[in-house]
Automatic annotation (TrEMBL), chain A:
It is a multi-pass membrane protein. This is YeeE/YedE thiosulfate transporter family protein. It holds the Pfam family Sulf_transp. It comes from Arcicella gelida. The keyword GTP-binding does not apply. Keywords: Cell inner membrane, Cell membrane, Membrane, Transmembrane, Transmembrane helix, Transport. The chain crosses the membrane at residues 12-30, 62-82, 120-139, 160-185. Belongs to the TsuA/YedE (TC 9.B.102) family. It is found in: Cell inner membrane.
UniProtKB/TrEMBL annotation, chain B:
It holds the Pfam family Sulf_transp. InterPro entries: Sulf_transp_TsuA/YedE. This is DUF6691 family protein. The chain crosses the membrane at residues 32-52, 64-83, 108-130, 136-156. It comes from Arcicella gelida. It comes from the Bacteria.
Protein backbone atom coordinates (compact mmCIF):
# COMPACT_ATOMS: atom_id res chain seq x y z
CA UNK A 1 0.00 0.00 0.00
CA UNK A 2 2.76 2.41 1.00
CA UNK A 3 4.54 1.46 -2.23
CA UNK A 4 1.50 2.57 -4.19
CA UNK A 5 1.15 5.85 -2.28
CA UNK A 6 4.83 6.61 -2.85
CA UNK A 7 4.37 6.48 -6.62
CA UNK A 8 3.35 9.75 -8.32
CA UNK A 9 -0.45 10.04 -8.20
CA UNK A 10 -2.59 10.00 -11.30
CA UNK A 11 -4.06 13.35 -12.38
CA UNK A 12 -7.60 12.04 -11.94
CA UNK A 13 -6.93 11.15 -8.28
CA UNK A 14 -5.54 14.63 -7.64
CA UNK A 15 -8.36 16.28 -9.58
CA UNK A 16 -11.09 14.45 -7.66
CA UNK A 17 -9.49 15.18 -4.27
CA UNK A 18 -8.95 18.86 -5.09
CA UNK A 19 -12.49 19.14 -6.45
CA UNK A 20 -13.89 17.58 -3.26
CA UNK A 21 -12.26 20.37 -1.25
CA UNK A 22 -15.03 22.67 -2.53
CA UNK A 23 -17.99 20.82 -0.93
CA UNK A 24 -15.91 19.79 2.11
CA UNK A 25 -15.12 23.39 3.08
CA UNK A 26 -18.70 24.46 2.38
CA UNK A 27 -20.26 21.69 4.42
CA UNK A 28 -17.98 21.76 7.42
CA UNK A 29 -17.89 25.53 7.79
CA UNK A 30 -19.62 27.48 4.99
CA UNK A 31 -16.23 28.49 3.63
CA UNK A 32 -15.59 29.26 -0.04
CA UNK A 33 -12.42 27.70 -1.39
CA UNK A 34 -9.64 30.15 -2.26
CA UNK A 35 -5.99 30.25 -1.31
CA UNK A 36 -4.62 33.62 -2.44
CA UNK A 37 -6.81 35.33 0.19
CA UNK A 38 -4.31 34.03 2.74
CA UNK A 39 -1.75 36.53 1.39
CA UNK A 40 -4.20 39.37 1.98
CA UNK A 41 -4.96 38.15 5.50
CA UNK A 42 -1.23 38.08 6.27
CA UNK A 43 -1.01 41.72 5.12
CA UNK A 44 -4.08 42.64 7.16
CA UNK A 45 -2.74 40.90 10.24
CA UNK A 46 0.89 42.04 10.04
CA UNK A 47 1.19 45.21 7.94
CA UNK A 48 -2.22 46.89 7.57
CA UNK A 49 -0.55 50.36 7.44
CA UNK A 50 -3.94 52.06 7.58
CA UNK A 51 -4.71 50.93 4.02
CA UNK A 52 -8.49 50.48 3.64
CA UNK A 53 -7.99 47.27 1.64
CA UNK A 54 -6.40 45.68 4.70
CA UNK A 55 -8.81 47.00 7.31
CA UNK A 56 -11.25 44.20 7.90
CA UNK A 57 -11.83 41.54 10.48
CA UNK A 58 -9.08 39.18 9.34
CA UNK A 59 -9.61 37.13 12.48
CA UNK A 60 -12.94 36.01 11.05
CA UNK A 61 -11.04 34.63 8.05
CA UNK A 62 -8.30 32.99 10.08
CA UNK A 63 -9.41 29.55 8.91
CA UNK A 64 -7.65 30.37 5.64
CA UNK A 65 -4.32 30.80 7.43
CA UNK A 66 -4.78 27.48 9.23
CA UNK A 67 -5.51 25.94 5.84
CA UNK A 68 -2.30 27.21 4.18
CA UNK A 69 -0.25 26.24 7.25
CA UNK A 70 -1.72 22.77 6.69
CA UNK A 71 -0.65 22.83 3.03
CA UNK A 72 2.91 23.55 4.15
CA UNK A 73 2.81 20.72 6.71
CA UNK A 74 1.26 18.40 4.10
CA UNK A 75 4.15 19.17 1.75
CA UNK A 76 6.58 18.33 4.53
CA UNK A 77 4.84 15.03 5.39
CA UNK A 78 4.69 13.95 1.75
CA UNK A 79 8.33 14.83 1.28
CA UNK A 80 9.55 13.09 4.43
CA UNK A 81 7.42 9.97 4.50
CA UNK A 82 5.78 9.42 1.11
CA UNK A 83 8.32 10.64 -1.37
CA UNK A 84 8.78 9.00 -4.74
CA UNK A 85 12.05 7.02 -4.80
CA UNK A 86 12.42 7.56 -8.56
CA UNK A 87 13.22 10.70 -10.51
CA UNK A 88 10.31 12.74 -11.80
CA UNK A 89 8.98 11.80 -15.24
CA UNK A 90 8.84 14.86 -17.49
CA UNK A 91 7.69 15.04 -21.09
CA UNK A 92 10.63 14.52 -23.46
CA UNK A 93 9.78 17.58 -25.51
CA UNK A 94 9.70 19.76 -22.36
CA UNK A 95 13.14 18.44 -21.38
CA UNK A 96 14.46 19.26 -24.85
CA UNK A 97 13.00 22.78 -24.72
CA UNK A 98 14.31 23.46 -21.21
CA UNK A 99 17.78 22.10 -22.04
CA UNK A 100 17.88 24.62 -24.88
CA UNK A 101 17.19 27.34 -22.31
CA UNK A 102 20.01 26.13 -20.08
CA UNK A 103 18.27 23.90 -17.52
CA UNK A 104 20.45 20.90 -16.68
CA UNK A 105 18.86 19.35 -13.57
CA UNK A 106 15.76 17.22 -14.13
CA UNK A 107 15.93 15.00 -11.05
CA UNK A 108 13.70 16.77 -8.54
CA UNK A 109 10.37 18.61 -8.51
CA UNK A 110 12.18 21.93 -9.01
CA UNK A 111 15.33 22.44 -11.09
CA UNK A 112 18.39 23.15 -8.95
CA UNK A 113 19.58 25.46 -11.76
CA UNK A 114 16.99 27.98 -10.57
CA UNK A 115 15.65 27.10 -7.13
CA UNK A 116 18.82 26.76 -5.11
CA UNK A 117 20.11 28.89 -2.27
CA UNK A 118 23.15 29.86 -4.38
CA UNK A 119 20.87 31.85 -6.65
CA UNK A 120 19.38 34.09 -3.97
CA UNK A 121 21.55 37.12 -4.68
CA UNK A 122 21.82 36.60 -8.41
CA UNK A 123 19.85 37.80 -11.42
CA UNK A 124 18.15 34.39 -11.53
CA UNK A 125 16.95 34.88 -7.97
CA UNK A 126 15.73 38.37 -8.78
CA UNK A 127 13.60 37.08 -11.65
CA UNK A 128 12.42 33.68 -10.43
CA UNK A 129 11.89 34.44 -6.73
CA UNK A 130 11.43 38.18 -6.30
CA UNK A 131 9.77 39.37 -9.52
CA UNK A 132 7.90 36.11 -10.13
CA UNK A 133 6.59 36.02 -6.57
CA UNK A 134 5.62 39.68 -6.67
CA UNK A 135 3.56 39.12 -9.83
CA UNK A 136 1.82 36.13 -8.25
CA UNK A 137 0.83 38.17 -5.19
CA UNK A 138 -0.05 41.37 -7.03
CA UNK A 139 -1.82 39.63 -9.91
CA UNK A 140 -3.96 37.25 -7.84
CA UNK A 141 -5.20 40.06 -5.64
CA UNK A 142 -5.89 42.36 -8.61
CA UNK A 143 -7.76 39.49 -10.28
CA UNK A 144 -9.61 38.73 -7.04
CA UNK A 145 -8.45 35.14 -6.84
CA UNK A 146 -6.09 32.49 -8.11
CA UNK A 147 -6.35 29.01 -9.53
CA UNK A 148 -8.37 27.86 -6.53
CA UNK A 149 -10.67 30.87 -6.07
CA UNK A 150 -11.37 31.51 -9.73
CA UNK A 151 -10.50 28.42 -11.77
CA UNK A 152 -11.89 25.85 -9.33
CA UNK A 153 -14.38 27.56 -6.99
CA UNK A 154 -15.46 30.19 -9.54
CA UNK A 155 -15.95 27.80 -12.43
CA UNK A 156 -17.69 25.29 -10.13
CA UNK A 157 -20.27 27.97 -9.38
CA UNK A 158 -20.49 28.96 -13.08
CA UNK A 159 -19.14 32.50 -12.68
CA UNK A 160 -18.35 34.22 -15.99
CA UNK A 161 -15.79 36.60 -14.37
CA UNK A 162 -13.92 33.54 -13.14
CA UNK A 163 -13.81 32.12 -16.66
CA UNK A 164 -12.40 35.44 -17.89
CA UNK A 165 -9.82 35.42 -15.08
CA UNK A 166 -8.85 31.80 -15.77
CA UNK A 167 -8.33 32.51 -19.47
CA UNK A 168 -6.19 35.54 -18.51
CA UNK A 169 -4.06 33.36 -16.18
CA UNK A 170 -3.44 30.97 -19.05
CA UNK A 171 -2.67 33.73 -21.57
CA UNK A 172 -0.16 35.26 -19.13
CA UNK A 173 1.47 31.87 -18.60
CA UNK A 174 1.74 31.19 -22.33
CA UNK A 175 3.24 34.66 -22.92
CA UNK A 176 5.86 34.15 -20.23
CA UNK A 177 6.76 30.62 -21.30
CA UNK A 178 6.77 31.11 -25.06
CA UNK A 179 7.99 34.70 -25.46
CA UNK A 180 9.60 36.08 -22.31
CA UNK A 181 11.45 33.12 -20.75
CA UNK A 182 13.75 32.71 -23.80
CA UNK A 183 14.68 36.41 -23.42
CA UNK A 184 15.15 36.16 -19.64
CA UNK A 185 17.38 33.09 -19.93
CA UNK A 186 19.63 35.00 -22.34
CA UNK A 187 20.55 37.30 -19.43
CA UNK A 188 22.22 34.55 -17.41
CA UNK B 1 -23.99 45.02 4.28
CA UNK B 2 -23.71 47.43 7.18
CA UNK B 3 -21.67 46.58 10.18
CA UNK B 4 -21.84 48.95 13.07
CA UNK B 5 -18.75 49.78 15.02
CA UNK B 6 -16.52 47.66 12.83
CA UNK B 7 -13.33 48.79 11.17
CA UNK B 8 -14.68 48.00 7.77
CA UNK B 9 -14.48 50.92 5.35
CA UNK B 10 -15.75 49.11 2.31
CA UNK B 11 -17.85 46.06 1.83
CA UNK B 12 -15.49 43.19 2.37
CA UNK B 13 -15.25 41.26 -0.85
CA UNK B 14 -13.10 38.22 -0.48
CA UNK B 15 -12.71 35.33 -2.86
CA UNK B 16 -12.70 32.81 -0.04
CA UNK B 17 -15.09 34.23 2.55
CA UNK B 18 -16.15 32.63 5.77
CA UNK B 19 -19.95 32.70 5.73
CA UNK B 20 -20.52 30.71 8.86
CA UNK B 21 -22.67 32.66 11.31
CA UNK B 22 -22.00 30.42 14.26
CA UNK B 23 -18.80 31.48 16.01
CA UNK B 24 -16.07 28.90 16.04
CA UNK B 25 -13.52 28.56 18.80
CA UNK B 26 -9.95 29.14 17.62
CA UNK B 27 -9.18 25.45 18.07
CA UNK B 28 -12.01 24.65 15.65
CA UNK B 29 -9.74 25.94 12.92
CA UNK B 30 -7.59 22.84 13.18
CA UNK B 31 -10.09 21.03 10.99
CA UNK B 32 -9.19 23.42 8.17
CA UNK B 33 -5.56 22.73 8.88
CA UNK B 34 -6.25 19.02 8.49
CA UNK B 35 -7.86 19.61 5.10
CA UNK B 36 -4.84 21.77 4.22
CA UNK B 37 -2.51 18.91 5.19
CA UNK B 38 -4.36 16.49 2.91
CA UNK B 39 -4.26 19.14 0.20
CA UNK B 40 -0.51 19.62 0.60
CA UNK B 41 0.04 15.86 0.34
CA UNK B 42 -2.09 15.69 -2.83
CA UNK B 43 -0.23 18.67 -4.34
CA UNK B 44 3.10 17.01 -3.65
CA UNK B 45 2.23 13.44 -4.60
CA UNK B 46 0.61 14.46 -7.88
CA UNK B 47 3.69 16.68 -8.47
CA UNK B 48 1.45 19.70 -9.11
CA UNK B 49 3.97 21.77 -7.17
CA UNK B 50 6.65 20.94 -9.72
CA UNK B 51 8.01 23.77 -11.83
CA UNK B 52 8.33 21.19 -14.62
CA UNK B 53 4.59 20.35 -14.58
CA UNK B 54 3.75 24.03 -15.05
CA UNK B 55 6.26 24.28 -17.90
CA UNK B 56 4.69 21.21 -19.54
CA UNK B 57 1.28 22.83 -19.21
CA UNK B 58 2.29 26.16 -20.76
CA UNK B 59 4.15 24.36 -23.56
CA UNK B 60 1.12 22.12 -24.25
CA UNK B 61 3.41 19.12 -23.93
CA UNK B 62 1.48 17.20 -21.31
CA UNK B 63 -2.17 16.71 -20.51
CA UNK B 64 -1.46 16.25 -16.80
CA UNK B 65 -2.29 19.71 -15.37
CA UNK B 66 -5.28 20.10 -17.70
CA UNK B 67 -6.48 16.75 -16.40
CA UNK B 68 -6.07 17.83 -12.76
CA UNK B 69 -7.77 21.21 -13.12
CA UNK B 70 -10.47 19.87 -15.45
CA UNK B 71 -11.35 16.99 -13.12
CA UNK B 72 -11.36 19.31 -10.09
CA UNK B 73 -13.73 21.71 -11.84
CA UNK B 74 -16.11 18.92 -12.88
CA UNK B 75 -16.15 17.44 -9.36
CA UNK B 76 -16.63 20.93 -7.91
CA UNK B 77 -19.49 21.69 -10.31
CA UNK B 78 -21.31 18.45 -9.56
CA UNK B 79 -20.87 19.05 -5.81
CA UNK B 80 -22.23 22.59 -6.01
CA UNK B 81 -25.13 21.38 -8.17
CA UNK B 82 -26.01 18.70 -5.59
CA UNK B 83 -25.70 21.13 -2.67
CA UNK B 84 -28.11 23.53 -4.39
CA UNK B 85 -30.49 20.85 -5.66
CA UNK B 86 -30.89 19.07 -2.32
CA UNK B 87 -30.44 22.22 -0.26
CA UNK B 88 -27.67 20.56 1.72
CA UNK B 89 -26.85 22.40 4.94
CA UNK B 90 -23.55 22.81 6.78
CA UNK B 91 -22.87 20.49 9.70
CA UNK B 92 -24.02 23.24 12.05
CA UNK B 93 -27.29 23.48 10.11
CA UNK B 94 -26.71 26.72 8.20
CA UNK B 95 -27.66 27.37 4.61
CA UNK B 96 -24.62 27.21 2.36
CA UNK B 97 -23.81 30.59 0.85
CA UNK B 98 -22.61 31.09 -2.73
CA UNK B 99 -21.32 34.39 -4.06
CA UNK B 100 -21.75 35.82 -7.52
CA UNK B 101 -18.59 37.46 -8.75
CA UNK B 102 -18.82 40.83 -10.44
CA UNK B 103 -16.77 41.48 -13.55
CA UNK B 104 -14.05 44.10 -13.43
CA UNK B 105 -11.02 44.73 -15.62
CA UNK B 106 -8.75 43.56 -12.81
CA UNK B 107 -9.71 40.00 -13.64
CA UNK B 108 -8.00 40.52 -17.02
CA UNK B 109 -5.04 42.72 -16.02
CA UNK B 110 -4.44 40.97 -12.71
CA UNK B 111 -5.04 37.60 -14.33
CA UNK B 112 -2.37 38.28 -16.96
CA UNK B 113 0.12 39.45 -14.33
CA UNK B 114 -0.53 36.38 -12.20
CA UNK B 115 -0.14 34.14 -15.27
CA UNK B 116 3.27 35.70 -16.03
CA UNK B 117 4.38 35.07 -12.46
CA UNK B 118 2.92 31.56 -12.39
CA UNK B 119 5.04 30.47 -15.36
CA UNK B 120 8.17 31.88 -13.68
CA UNK B 121 7.74 30.56 -10.16
CA UNK B 122 6.00 27.36 -11.20
CA UNK B 123 3.52 27.97 -8.43
CA UNK B 124 0.21 29.56 -7.71
CA UNK B 125 -0.31 30.56 -4.07
CA UNK B 126 -1.26 27.07 -2.79
CA UNK B 127 1.77 25.25 -4.19
CA UNK B 128 4.06 27.99 -2.82
CA UNK B 129 3.30 26.77 0.69
CA UNK B 130 3.69 23.11 -0.33
CA UNK B 131 7.03 23.81 -2.04
CA UNK B 132 8.34 25.33 1.19
CA UNK B 133 7.11 22.26 3.09
CA UNK B 134 9.02 20.11 0.61
CA UNK B 135 12.20 21.84 1.67
CA UNK B 136 12.68 24.30 -1.17
CA UNK B 137 13.84 27.00 1.21
CA UNK B 138 14.30 29.68 -1.47
CA UNK B 139 10.55 29.66 -2.07
CA UNK B 140 10.19 31.53 1.25
CA UNK B 141 11.59 34.49 -0.70
CA UNK B 142 8.99 33.95 -3.42
CA UNK B 143 6.26 33.83 -0.76
CA UNK B 144 7.54 36.98 0.95
CA UNK B 145 7.61 38.71 -2.41
CA UNK B 146 4.07 37.52 -3.15
CA UNK B 147 2.93 39.02 0.17
CA UNK B 148 4.70 42.25 -0.82
CA UNK B 149 2.90 42.12 -4.17
CA UNK B 150 -0.46 41.74 -2.46
CA UNK B 151 0.38 44.64 -0.14
CA UNK B 152 1.44 46.82 -3.07
CA UNK B 153 -1.84 46.06 -4.81
CA UNK B 154 -3.72 47.13 -1.68
CA UNK B 155 -1.71 50.35 -1.54
CA UNK B 156 -2.37 51.32 -5.18
CA UNK B 157 -5.81 49.73 -5.50
CA UNK B 158 -7.74 52.94 -6.08
CA UNK B 159 -5.30 54.20 -8.73
CA UNK B 160 -5.47 51.05 -10.83
CA UNK B 161 -7.99 50.60 -13.64
CA UNK B 162 -10.83 48.36 -12.60
Amino acid sequence: MLELIRQPWHWAVAGVLIGLTVPTLLIIGNKSFGISSSLRHICAACFPADIPFFKYEWKKEIWNLFFVAGVLIGGFIANQFLSNPNTIVISESTITDLKALGITDFTNLMPADLFSVDNIFTLKGLFFFVIGGFMVGFGTRYAGGCTSGHAIMGLSTLQLPSLIATISFMVGGFLMTQLLLPLIFKLF
Amino acid sequence: MQKSGALINEEFVCDAPNDQKKKEPLAGNFKYMLIGIIFGIVFTKAEIISWFRIQEMFRLQSFFMYGVIGTAVVVGMISVFLIKKFNIKTISGEKIVFHDKVFNKGQIYGGLIFGLGWAMTGACPGPLFAQIGNGFIVVTITLASAIAGTWTFGYFKDKLPS
